[in-house]
Amino acid sequence: MIHGITVRLYVKSQTGTDAFNAPVYAETPIDVPNVLVGEPTAEDIVNDLQLYGKRIAYTLGIPKGDAHDWENATVEFFGKKFRTYGGVTQGIDDLIPLLWNKKVKVERYG
After folding, report:
1. What is the value of pTM for the model shown?
2. pLDDT tens-digit series, residues 22-63
3. What CATH number matches the domain at 5-108, 2.170.120, 2.40.10, 2.30.29, 3.30.1340?
4. What gap in Å lies between CA 86 and CA 88, rounded to an integer?
5. Nearest alpha carbon to residue 30 among 58, 60, 66, 59
6. How many CA atoms lie within 13 A of 19 on its CB side?
7. Where are the domains of the chain?
8. 13, 29, 84, 96 — which has fewest CB within 10 A?
9. What are phi and psi of 103, to 5 degrees?
């Protein structure tokens, strides 16, 4: 049976503004269970480097029903921090037979 791992997602929330009236954010860690971690293909690595200027490390499969914001978020798994990029790709729940319906790309961060 396929199963994922628990990934720590850092959710941003605005805590105020700085002296230049720019928003200031705090990150709160939330554990998201059953996230798939997949290895990118060689083609994905080359394409993302050319299109986004980013080196893809993994692709995450997000479980159905998850309502967190995964765009431009910091995530932590395998004892390392990563940053999501490129937006979230989502499928139709009823047409996908497994437990995951979204995916997002991550690059090594920090």
Report:
1. 0.88
2. 999 999 999 999 999 999 999 999 999 998 899 999 999 999
3. 2.40.10
4. 7
5. 66
6. 0
7. 5-108
8. 13
9. -145, 150
Q: Can you read off the two tokens belonging to residue 18?
A: 């700085």
Whole-number pLDDT of residue 107: 96
pLDDT of residue 41: 92
| Per-residue model confidence as pLDDT tens digits over 50-107 | 988 999 999 999 999 999 999 999 999 999 999 999 899 999 989 999 999 999 999 9
Looking up tokens 């729940």 gives 93
